[in-house]
Amino acid sequence: MIASLSLILLCQLAGEVFVRGLGLPMPGPVIGLLLLLLLLLARDRFAALARGPLQNDGVESASRGLLAHLSLLFVPAGVGVVQKLDLLAEHGIAIFLILMVSVAITLLVTVATFLAASRLLARAGDAP
């Protein structure tokens, strides 16, 4: 399990180095997850890669272990909010309004995306 967790963290580090090296405006762990996905897909295609942490579903078991305790990762964020209650009290109304506007925009964009996708799929279904 340690080797599998190390591979996951190594992919995250590689993603971070890649993003910072190229100055990309995206989180490094996203690139790291894509790299890990490519490794897992390559492992399934090429038997020579199924060694070390990539063999016998090691990465999958380590991932399940992390996901089982995912809620613990929210504890530091909660403690940070409690430590800044004075800022929350001072800017609470502005934060609330910004959250409501962002939720409304997200919902509108989601609905627009759904409608556009359903129209495209309907056209593709009508085409011979």
Textual characterization of the structure:
This protein has 128 residues and is mainly α. The chain contains 5 helices and no strands. Helix 1 (2-22) crosses helix 2 (28-45) and helix 1 packs across helix 3. The longest helix has 42 residues, at 85-126. The radius of gyration is 21 Å and the shape is flat. It starts with a helix and ends with a helix.
Which sequence of SSEs, written as H and E, runs from N to C?
Answer: HHHHH
Number of strands: 0
Count of individual helical segments = 5
What's the Cα radius of gyration? 21 Å
Q: What characterizes the major β-sheet?
A: none
What amount of the residues lies in strands? under 5%
Backbone structural class: mainly alpha
Uncertain segments are: none
Fraction of residues in H or I helices? over 70%
Pick out its properties:
single chain; 128 residues; mainly alpha; 5 helices; flat
Task: Describe the structure in brief.
By secondary structure, the protein is an all-alpha fold. The protein contains five helices and no strands. Helix 1 (2-22) packs across helix 2 and helix 1 (2-22) crosses helix 3.
